[in-house]
Design a protein that fits this description.
The chain is built from seven helices and 20 strands. The protein has helices at residues 13-18, 51-68, 89-99, 177-194, 215-225, 297-314, 335-346, and strands at 3-4, 33-38, 42-43, 46-47, 76-83, 106-111, 121-127, 133-135, 150-153, 156-159, 202-209, 233-238, 248-255, 261-262, 278-280, 285-287, 290-291, 322-329, 354-357, 366-372. The strands form four sheets. Strands 14, 15, 16, 17, 18, 19 and 20 form a seven-stranded mixed beta sheet that branches. A six-stranded mixed beta sheet has the order 8-9-10-13-11-12, with helices on one face.
């Protein structure tokens, strides 16, 4: 099948030229491969209008990208699925599960504004050829799912986006954001325990909130669940979830390391926040989402990158060490401006960022989160 449409992920003159080459295959550290923003809106000369057809074509395109790295679907350990409309979830899921039938990757699925206005689905993944262990906690009951609770590669654990479910029945645990956040971390704890880890090993989390007005309530419950002295790096954005009874979904990574430390920019005093500016493990540096100050997306992007540079310098790293980038935009139409500044700052060989449209927790329109690769 000939699949087109991925080049439509970015619009605008400069980026249309850039995407003539397969930039969705990111510059990699040796262990992990990141493939970002995969979409497919046409196949075999016809326009795809159903989520089932687009999901199938998108996953076929993903398979081609994996093959370019000598990988296959079985090597995917993390899948982030972004849907244009939550009503497309069942249609997507029915097709998705046929591609990942054995030891499926961890997954988080949310509604977001996509790069291609014609796309109904956009996918970013992390893959590796290294041996992996599927983590299935005894304490978490669930039906047959098209994702794994956790996948461990070496000393790194990838955890699926967790929602508030009863561990004995898999039924939703409703309540306010505090109740749901507490239950979520209880379930994450089951996954960590099965992997021989604890909440103290969390290095990075993404929090998706259905309603940002509950942010303060979630934040207090979150702070009670993570280590006080070295909480994981974090980004928090607004995104509709796949079940209307859920207010919060949290997707995390953990890494067991005796070299774990908090990284702050020089002169930055510790603050009473439930996340760290950066967590370094000796293998990688995980940065929190950084929002930029300024009057427009360009100013905000430059300010965010200046702050990130200061944190990198505190860890004796630079932008040349960046392994993965996520960009959250309050207005996805700002993507061209942001991408251009990223290229100017990081260089043309920078990893392709995952970019989605999602409301932020403050007034800024740009938030950038990075993972920095192993030291040379």
């Amino acid at each position: 099948m000939t699949v087109t449409g991925i080049q439509c992920a970015f619009m605008g003159g400069l980026l249309s030229l850039v995407l003539a080459s397969p930039l969705w295959l990111s510059a990699q550290a040796p262990e992990l491969v990141y493939i970002s923003n995969v979409t497919a809106t046409q196949a075999g000369g016809r326009t795809l209008t159903s989520v089932e057809d687009q999901t199938r074509a998108t996953l076929d395109r993903l398979g081609e990208a994996l093959q370019e790295h000598g990988l296959s679907y079985s090597d995917v350990v993390v899948s982030n699925v972004f849907l244009k409309d939550t009503r497309h979830f069942q249609g997507m899921n029915g097709v998705y599960r046929t591609y990942f039938q054995v030891a499926p990757p961890t997954r988080a699925t949310v509604q977001a504004d996509l790069l291609d206005p014609d796309a109904l689905i956009q996918i970013s993944v992390v893959a590796t050829e290294e041996p992996k262990e599927v983590i299935t906690p005894d304490g978490l009951r669930s039906p047959e799912l098209p994702y794994s609770w956790g996948i461990k590669v070496g000393n790194t654990l990838f955890i699926s986006g967790a929602t508030s479910r009863d561990p004995d029945t898999y039924q939703p645990v409703t309540g306010d954001m505090a109740t749901q956040t507490q239950r979520i971390f209880g379930n994450i704890g089951f996954v960590l325990d099965e992997a021989g880890m604890s909440l103290r090993d969390l290095v990075s989390c993404r929090v998706f909130l259905d309603d940002p007005r509950g942010f303060a309530v979630m934040n207090r419950a979150y702070a009670e669940s993570v280590p006080a002295t070295d909480p994981p790096a974090r980004a928090t954005v607004r995104a509709s979830l796949m079940n209307v009874v859920f207010s919060t979904e949290i997707q995390c990574m953990a890494e067991s390391s005796s070299e774990r430390r908090v990284v702050r920019a020089e002169g930055q005093a510790p603050r009473q926040l439930p996340f760290s500016p950066g967590i370094e493990t000796g293998n990688r540096l995980y940065l929190a989402g950084v929002v930029g100050r300024g009057n427009d997306a360009g100013e905000q992007t430059r300010a965010a990158l200046d702050d990130i540079r200061s944190t990198l310098e505190a860890a004796s790293r630079g932008f040349g060490d960046v392994e993965d980038i996520w960009v959250y935009l309050a207005d996805v139409r700002d993507r061209d401006v942001v991408q251009t500044i990223l290229n100017e700052t990081l260089g043309d060989d920078m990893p392709t960022p995952t970019i989605i449209g999602a409301r932020l927790m403050g007034r800024s329109g740009v938030e950038i989160q990075m993972v920095i690769g192993k030291k040379p």
